[in-house]
Amino acid sequence: MKVLPFKIPKTQNIGLIYQEDKEKHFYDKFHQHEEIQLCVIVKGEGTLIVGDTINKYSSGDVLVIGSNLPHVFKSDASVIKESFMISLFFTKSSFGKDFFLLDDFKELIPFFDKSISGFRLLENKEKVTKLFLGLHKSNNLTRFIGLLEILKTLVESETAELASFIYPKRYTDNEGKRMQNVMDYTINNFDKNIDLYKIAEKANMTPNAFCRYFKQRTNKTYFTFLNELRIENACKFLNSENSLSISEIAYQCGFNNLSNFNRKFKEIKEVSPSKYRKVSGFK
Fold first, then answer.
1. How many CA atoms lie within 13 A of 142 on its CB side?
2. Where are the beta strands (DSSP E) in 117-215?
3. Can you give the pTM of this predicted structure?
């Protein structure tokens, strides 16, 4: 089974795939699949990387990942021992090439447009979660009807974009494996010193070639991405009740210099770490 691109297991001749993931960790490899993924996080929290953008997810979130949109869920197992996600997978042509082109489905056009960059639901999350939970013991027809109800609610609700930049080409197997190696290494080692030579080696490229490669596919430099990942993890510490000082958090997230950490944090979050912690209710 290829990691990138990833093939969603399909055992029957059906257009809609229903899947439950109950694990300590969700599938944690940077990957993409042809199917659009609608999912609800019943239980769990962690970091979600979609395209070029780092997001947080937590229990109750309703998320949409677009067709061939690279992504990875990095579960925080230190908070919740078992994560639980329910997903629906389908393509625009799963029910026939022209199915969603019928006038009957005109009002769903915004859904497919927004799914390209992925989005999270900002309202009606409880309603959509209830619809997802009701699919557990349903037959295929009832799940299809449920999908239409979910899509209707998504179109009528306020949402927020997940990815700010989408690489316009689908990854080849070799290119996908290369990007997966880069992302996996970064996610698992962001708290350590990562220099340009080390990360370029993971991609089997020269430093200059790697810089061009990463910028072309994410619209940002590698070290911008690395700092964003480090800051998002720092936010987890600042949002939790712990006795770590800001300097200790900075060190645990890969910053060896407190002033650099403070500067990068304010650049990305537009507030200082101390103010962020204060707003979160932890001092």
1. 9
2. 119-121, 159-161
3. 0.80
